[in-house]
């Protein structure tokens, strides 16, 4: 059994929930290159060796269209119907329903719920998840308070933010084997968190304001080897309460990252999906959903990506 999952908390908890729900003992779990929306040669080699595949929390339907093995594709992002008859696509969006996270889709599909289901939702939609009764109930059962839940998400995310793909994949087994209180004290992840928080604050200190016709948009540029771009965007929109933010990491391991996030109240005014499609048509490596897009590109293409976003604004 091969499990291919996203590198963030939602992807890691979705993988852990699938493994526990199916009582799997013989499995391999892998994540794509952090920050890149593609299956690399390493993943393709694993696909060749396996009999059955699960793809979790990865908005990459195009990557499974040619797979000739049984594949279960579970996700919650907006995407097209997969045509490959070997692929069973489980995504409530296709039926006009919205789920806060892939972990919720996984738990619903397998009828298997625990605190990891809640952490996946918190990881994807932040503090809004605490207004979901199911999230509150699952955390209460596990005796986890709000502060602890938020820290658990940050600890799990620290593996991808520090760009440690191996640690991301190891994290699946760690969250399966350890109790929540043990995870909160896990030394390696806590050290990561200290370094990350310093980098995020340095980026936030460079904030600029762009007043467009319909929204108050923040603009942030920085350079960092850490994959903090989504954390910077969430903090700007969720904590500083901007309508949206464009964040640019100008030197991310030789490439650039551009990230655009809007607040939930702006989804009727700004169609992020249209921007994603526009950039995808221009052959950019991009992913996202109705409130967010993320793009990794060559440094020379930063202006093209930003101009495309600004044209929509």
Question: Any overview of this molecule?
Answer:
43% of the residues lie in helices and 19% in strands. The chain folds into 2 domains: 2-185, inorganic pyrophosphatase (n-terminal core) (Alpha-Beta Complex); 201-312, Diaminopimelate Epimerase, Chain A, domain 1. The mean pLDDT is 95. The protein is built from 12 helices and 11 strands. A hairpin with a 2-residue loop joins strand 10 and strand 11 (292-297). It is globular and about 50 Å long. The protein has 313 residues and is α/β, with parallel strands linked by helices.
Layout of helices and strands:
Blueprint: E1 2-5, H1 9-21, E2 28-30, H2 41-49, E3 52-56, E4 70-74, E5 87-90, H3 102-110, H4 115-125, H5 133-141, H6 146-161, H7 165-177, H8 180-184, H9 187-204, E6 208-211, E7 216-222, H10 229-239, E8 244-252, E9 255-262, H11 272-281, E10 285-289, E11 292-297, H12 302-312
Parallel strand pairs: 1-2, 1-3, 3-4, 4-5, 7-8
Antiparallel strand pairs: 6-7, 8-9, 9-11, 10-11
